[in-house]
What does this fold into?
Amino acid sequence: MTDTVNPTTKVGPLLDAHPELEDVLIAISPEFRRLKNPLLRRTVARVATLEQAARIGGVPVPELVGRLRAALGQASPEAVPTVPGAAEDAAEPAWLAGTTPADTLEAEAILASGKTPVGAFVERLTHASPGQVVLLVAPFNPAPLIDAVTAKGYEVYTRHASERWEVWVRA
It folds into this structure.
């Protein structure tokens, strides 16, 4: 990989080309230790961009991209553009008040089955009736999934609850 690292760079291909960056990522945020999991590496890391990874790791995008560029000896501009994404922990929307999810999926179980949470979650949403809510529970911020369902026009509410993330999506 000879391209300049930027917010839209995919994590998996970047690590394939530069495996030494795994330790750099883990030093930036302990959340990135999950990249050592081969299943997560083959699934989520393939689709996650650095902008999404920054959200997962709770790190500003410019800091993440800048440190990776520095590790590769690439010039780091003063301002790294960000890609707009869904806001987490915003005010709870009215449609969520008193709602019981029609379906709840566990990201870890989906990953353990060899599937990606994005694919499984979108499949469930396509079978949900209009107005029904589907919930994904994950031990990490599932930024690629949030971006994917937001791009499809679904209403999304995300919150960090203790040791887990909840993504509530209204069909």
